[in-house]
Design goal:
Helices cover 25% and strands 33% of the residues. It is an alpha+beta fold.
Length: 170
């Protein structure tokens, strides 16, 4: 009887250890992942994305941090966490560490959410380099939740790009 109890306990502890390791790896890929500095990933982290109609601002940092603000009454944090860009699926995978209970983020497994993006338009590197006139970068963000809320955003042109040149979008 004693040996079977020890085997059961050691089996349970072994399974628990494997589950913790797998969960740790999944969380670490979001937390310690830094976005690529080229392609579509680069465009997301070059500035803040603002939807004036819905009073929402999305911020994607160079370190992989994600913030979503309500701009109606100042800047109330609606969500924060980490993001990862999947350019093949045109999706932003989010690990939310904090979020407002007023909004449906389509959260799966307690922390994970996905934003799909479409119609990403941005000026070419040559336009910026040679100071040619160009439109603001635009993108549509779609939360994969029950409401399927669409945010039509423009990038705020106040940030500098990675080469130190200020992005002066018109």
């Amino acid at each position: 009887m004693n040996k079977t109890v020890k085997k059961i306990i050691s089996t349970i502890l072994g399974v628990l250890f494997v589950i913790l390791v797998v969960c740790g790896i999944v969380v670490a890929t979001y937390v310690f992942n830094t976005p690529s500095k080229d392609g579509e990933s680069r465009q997301f982290i070059m500035g803040d994305w603002i939807d004036a109609d819905n009073n929402v601002k999305f911020v994607f940092s160079e370190e992989g941090d994600f913030y979503m603000y309500d701009t109606k009454d100042g800047e109330t944090v609606l969500a924060k966490g980490f993001f990862k860009v999947n350019e093949d699926d045109h999706a932003l995978k989010l690990l939310l560490t904090e979020h407002s209970s007023d909004m449906d983020f389509g959260i799966k497994l307690w922390f994970f959410s996905t934003i799909t993006y479409t119609d990403l338009k941005y000026p070419s590197a040559e336009d910026i380099e040679y100071d040619r006139p160009h439109d603001k970068a635009t993108c549509k963000f779609l939360f994969q939740d029950a409401n399927a809320k669409v945010y039509k955003c423009e990038r705020d042109g106040e940030k500098k790009n990675f080469y130190g040149k200020k992005i002066d979008e018109k």
